[in-house]
């Protein structure tokens, strides 16, 4: 997955498996939310995302459910 | 639950994972609770009573953490069943535990319980974290918005708990009608999340940058602990420290317990003299209790260590680090905690696998858990390794023990990989794991939980081990033969006759009926193998432990099969070690497998496969080495 660490992204939409999308909402991921990836584990392992004031590990496939728009570097 | 208990006021604690629910539960109940099984189902949960100092007659149910009322794993199903499958009159009120630092995200569950029709109080935890940074939260406003009582809780000091109980007293005996929720579609979810965020926007007075210092600290630590390279090294180091502590920390306690039981047996023999009752009490009852309880320190230390790692926030990181390699084996990062617990005891380990949402992953996880080197294997390894390496440098058996640990992990990985290829992929698997803020572990809560788990091991496994040990003692003591020594008496006992009947099965492993009997008895508990061998080889009764072990080792060296060959050779002992490494010889494990997987076929397949594979590999090892 082609994302840069420590860069802010905005969630602009969702796509993928219904179960994953439901759980993503339940964990607080919604459109317009700003998130940041803080760590990528090797061999396409989980990505660690900062959402509000918490970290959430997402598998690549789960992170791919988020449609993202990169925000200008602050 | 009994009829008298259901008539009491019962309140359920519900909240997302890491919201501080269990800490609150411990504060309310004064850490006095028990795990109860709901009649007619497999669900169980912690039930406690409000501490007497609060002067309230309220029962409290602690439920597994949930993000929503749409369950996606077995533990979430427990919460769902507590809320919706129990008679609604059982629960009068719900306390929704909300992390004040995660307001908008955590209030999502409040909206769902509201829609379900529950009357509720919001317990706002982690207030102490906000106040530490000179931030505060407007409780009155939240109360107004959600039209309920809101109480702030300080998890470290227990502040707010008396106020919470007072508010619960006012809500007693309300007749409530609850209903399961209809599906929430994406639009509804989005709208509610957005609405909650707007509602909570000005509820917290913020610092300049609005970030909690503990979150900033967490972010800095995660840069290191989740680092692609350094993170893995630290993970390995943490595991090495954890596992080595099981040995060096437990050893003195184990010696004490062993000493106490040896002393008890000796006193009994001296007091009662020779006779059936004396034999029964000392060799049957006391010896089997000793065999069960001697492992309690190791199990406790492992649970305590896991508890510290979990409470401080590290286990979620470990699960993240290991998710990718585990997923290649059909497992999940969430399988890590159950598999780790398997090194203490497979029974609680299988119960810990409830957090896995995917049935297939749970199947594979539970299948390989008995392969982990549980503490009951250790005395067997200790005896067999000291036989092989008698009189040699101490590092050799140490290295061999490490090889057995890694060997078991390797076999587990191979088994998982094979199952991953064989089993059909059905439902979607997900990992998605919230990483809690790093905090100093709450020693009191961790200690209490480790004690509860250890006690549950002893009370769950204890009676089975005890009953079977008594049975084995009886079978090996009768009929009372008029033979010159214990070995011959045993040979003519019912157990000896059974051993002779099954001897052909164990012959290919290079051992005779006596070891076969030991292996059979090991199905009560693996460690019983050692005590059975002691009985079979009639070691001299002595209070000096070292000489007891040396005497057993000497008898093992001299033991001959009927064809005149030695029973215990490097080849046959290695075969035995391989057998113990793989075989599932634990009735409690199979019982819990049936319960957790709700499937007899799973337990039977697991029992047969692990024993057959263990047997074939043991026979193969013997043939190659001899």
Give the structure's gist in a few sentences.
Chain A has 2 helices and 5 strands; from the N terminus they run E-H-E-E-E-H-E. With 74 residues, chain A is of the alpha+beta class.
Describe the structure.
The complex is a heterodimer of chains A (74) and B (626). In chain A, 18% of the residues lie in helices and 39% in strands. Chain A is an alpha+beta fold and 74 residues long. Chain A has a single domain (8-70), classed as Roll (SH3 type barrels), CATH 2.30.30.90. In chain A, a hairpin with a 6-residue loop joins β2 (34-40) and β3. The model of chain A has no long low-confidence stretch (mean pLDDT 92). Chain B has 626 residues and is of the alpha/beta class. Chain B has a domain at 3-210: P-loop containing nucleotide triphosphate hydrolases (Rossmann fold, 3-Layer(aba) Sandwich), CATH 3.40.50.300. Chain B is 61% helix and 7% strand. Chain B is built from 27 helices and 10 strands. In chain B, the strands form 2 sheets. In chain B, strands 2-3-4-1-5-6-8 form a 7-stranded mixed β-sheet, sandwiched between helices. The model of chain B is unreliable at 1-7 (pLDDT under 50). The A-B interface holds A 14, 17, 19-28, 30-32, 38-46, 48, 50-59, 62 and B 67-68, 70, 72, 101-102, 104-105, 108, 184, 186, 189-190, 193-194, 197, 211-212, 215, 218-219, 222-223, 226-229, 231, 316, 319-321, 323-324, 327, 333, 427-428, 430-435, 437. β4 of chain A pairs antiparallel with β10 of chain B, so a sheet runs across the interface.
């Amino acid at each position: 997955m082609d994302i840069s660490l420590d860069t802010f992204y905005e969630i602009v939409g969702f796509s993928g498996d219904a179960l994953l999308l439901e759980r993503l909402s339940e964990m607080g991921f919604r459109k317009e939310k700003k998130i940041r990836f803080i760590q990528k584990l090797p061999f396409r392992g989980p990505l660690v995302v900062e959402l509000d004031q918490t970290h959430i590990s997402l598998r690549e496939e789960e992170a791919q459910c988020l449609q993202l728009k990169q925000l200008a570097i602050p | 639950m009994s009829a008298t208990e259901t008539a009491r006021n019962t309140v359920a604690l519900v909240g997302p994972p890491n919201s501080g629910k269990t800490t609150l539960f411990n504060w309310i109940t004064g850490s006095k609770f028990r795990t109860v099984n709901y009649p007619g189902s497999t669900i169980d949960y912690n039930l406690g009573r409000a501490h007497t100092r609060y002067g309230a007659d309220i029962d409290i149910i602690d439920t597994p953490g949930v993000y929503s009322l749409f369950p996606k794993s077995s533990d979430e199903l427990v919460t769902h069943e507590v809320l919706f499958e129990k008679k609604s009159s059982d629960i009068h009120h719900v306390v929704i535990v909300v992390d004040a630092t995660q307001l908008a995200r955590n209030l999502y569950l409040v909206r769902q319980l509201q829609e379900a029709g529950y009357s509720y109080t919001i317990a706002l935890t982690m207030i102490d974290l906000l106040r530490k940074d000179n931030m505060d939260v407007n409780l009155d406003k939240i109360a107004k918005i959600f039209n309920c009582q809101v109480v702030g809780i300080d998890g470290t000091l227990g502040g707010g708990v008396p106020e919470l109980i007072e508010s619960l007293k006012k809500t007693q005996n309300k007749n409530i009608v609850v209903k399961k929720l209809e599906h929430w579609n994406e639009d509804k979810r989005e709208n509610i999340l957005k609405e909650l965020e707007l509602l909570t926007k000005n509820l917290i007075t913020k610092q300049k940058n609005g970030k909690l210092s503990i979150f900033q600290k967490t972010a800095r630590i995660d840069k290191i602990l989740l680092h692609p390279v350094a993170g893995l090294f630290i993970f390995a180091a943490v595991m090495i420290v954890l596992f080595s502590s099981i040995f060096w920390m437990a050893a003195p306690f184990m010696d004490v317990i062993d000493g106490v039981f040896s002393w008890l047996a000796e006193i009994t023999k001296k007091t009662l003299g020779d006779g059936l009752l004396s034999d029964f009490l000392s060799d049957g009852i006391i010896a089997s209790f000793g065999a069960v309880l001697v492992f309690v320190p190791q199990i406790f230390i492992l649970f305590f260590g896991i508890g510290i790692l979990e409470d401080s926030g590290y286990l979620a990181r470990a699960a993240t680090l290991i998710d990718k390699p585990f997923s290649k084996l059909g497992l999940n990062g969430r399988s890590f905690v159950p598999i780790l617990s398997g090194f203490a005891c497979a029974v609680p380990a299988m119960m810990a696998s409830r957090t896995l949402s995917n049935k297939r992953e749970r199947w594979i996880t539970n299948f390989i858990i008995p392969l982990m080197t549980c503490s009951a294997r250790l005395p067997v390894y200790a005896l067999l390794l000291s036989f092989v390496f008698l009189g040699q440098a101490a590092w050799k058996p140490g290295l061999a023990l490490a090889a057995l640990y890694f060997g078991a992990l390797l076999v587990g990985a191979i088994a998982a990989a094979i199952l991953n290829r064989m089993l059909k992929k059905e439902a979607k698997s997900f990992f998605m794991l919230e990483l809690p803020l790093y905090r100093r572990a709450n020693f009191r809560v961790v200690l209490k939980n480790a004690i509860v788990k250890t006690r549950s091991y002893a009370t769950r496994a204890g009676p089975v081990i005890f009953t079977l040990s008594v049975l084995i003692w009886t079978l090996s003591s009768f009929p009372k033969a008029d033979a010159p020594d214990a070995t011959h008496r045993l040979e003519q006992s019912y157990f000896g006759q059974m051993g002779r009947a099954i001897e052909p099965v164990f012959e290919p492993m290079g051992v005779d009926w006596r070891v076969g009997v030991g292996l059979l008895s090991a199905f009560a508990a693996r460690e019983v193998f050692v005590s059975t061998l002691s009985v079979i080889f009639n070691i001299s009764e002595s209070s000096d432990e070292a000489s007891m072990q040396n005497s057993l080792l000497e008898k093992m060296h001299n033991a001959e099969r009927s064809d005149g060959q030695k029973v215990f050779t490097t080849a046959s002992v290695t075969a035995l070690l391989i057998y113990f490494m793989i075989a599932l010889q634990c009735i409690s494990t199979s019982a819990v497998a049936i319960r957790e997987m709700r499937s007899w076929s799973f337990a039977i397949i697991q029992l047969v496969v692990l024993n057959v594979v263990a047997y074939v590999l043991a026979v193969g090892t013997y043939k190659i080495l001899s």
